[in-house]
């Protein structure tokens, strides 16, 4: 691969609870202080598919489009034969965190069991290149069964310029992006 063909950035996608933006560098720890890999997805569809069940009771979802550094030395594509299929458990996130550390990788691309030829991206929040991950887009999707008061400020979330929350009770609020 020539330098000219190396992508500047690689897109990745996350869907999370409305109050769970991507972890800051060196901060992805469980309540007991154990470090874990950060999970992202190769496509927005895979992100939605893989997080549907675990986020079913959330009233609003945070969707993020990330731009990862494109340097191929930071990434490794793994095979089903080498890793098996991904299971999103604390144990798996811990094991992959250790794998990323041992191999000095920012990102491991693990095959998805749900979508052929798509990958779950596991990121090391302690890797020096993690801080260069950019958030291209971040927005909230409010569900129809919403319990979140959209008029109240949501701490820690930044909506893209020009976006503002649609107030709850509006006929346009249910199931839409939080913009006018």
Global structural class: alpha+beta
Spatial shape: globular
Number of helices: 3
The biggest sheet, with number of strands, parallel, antiparallel or mixed sense and barrel status, is: 4 strands, mixed
Strand content: 25-35%
Could you give the distance between the termini?
Answer: 45 Å
Total number of strands: 7
Low-confidence runs: 150-180
- Tell me the Rg in angstroms: 17 Å
String of helices and strands: EEHEEHHEEE
Helical content band: 10-25%
Brief overview:
The protein is 14% helix and 25% strand. The chain has 3 helices and 7 strands; from the N terminus they run ββαββααβββ. Strand 5 and strand 6 form a beta hairpin.
What this model shows, in words?
With 180 residues, the chain is of the alpha+beta class. It has helices spanning 44-51, 80-83, 90-102; strands at 9-17, 38-41, 60-69, 75-77, 107-111, 119-123, 134-142. The strands form two sheets. Strands 2-6-5-4 form a four-stranded mixed β-sheet. A three-stranded antiparallel β-sheet has the order 1-3-7. A hairpin with a 7-residue loop joins β5 (107-111) and β6 (119-123).
What labels describe this entry?
180 residues, alpha+beta, three-stranded antiparallel beta sheet, 7 strands, 14% helix, 25% strand
List the helices and strands and how they pair.
Blueprint: E1 9-17, E2 38-41, H1 44-51, E3 60-69, E4 75-77, H2 80-83, H3 90-102, E5 107-111, E6 119-123, E7 134-142
Parallel strand pairs: 4-5
Antiparallel strand pairs: 1-3, 2-6, 3-7, 5-6
